[in-house]
Amino acid sequence: MGELDEKKRRTLVAACHQVNRDFASIFSTLLPGAQAQLRPPPGQGVRVGFNGTWKESLSELSGGQRSLVALSLVLAMLLFKPAPLYILDEVDAALDLSHTQNIGIMLKEHFRHSQVL
């Protein structure tokens, strides 16, 4: 039983590291010059940095920034087990044009082997 628990823990840690890497990469593509990272338990949070200043809470971010954090996290989790097709509906509804263009750039860069509608 201990062996199985250890294998589960290692698998979870590896998954968290991969999702965190993809999350940071996607977020920095969507918002050039910004950084983001997930904090594993017990922190259970997200840190977002702008020009070297880290925001420790999502409440410190604007609505558009929170939308980009959420989109980055969802897409990072989708990259962990990629699918051949994704259908995204109005993911850019709350964003201005520059961020909408960055979404297109990010999808081309990170989802080369998938079709996105």
From TrEMBL:
Residues 60-117 form the RecF/RecN/SMC N-terminal domain. Pfam families: SMC_N. It comes from the Eukaryota. InterPro entries: P-loop_NTPase, RecF/RecN/SMC_N. This is RecF/RecN/SMC N-terminal domain-containing protein. It comes from Pieris brassicae (White butterfly). The lineage of its organism: Eukaryota, Metazoa, Ecdysozoa, Arthropoda, Hexapoda.
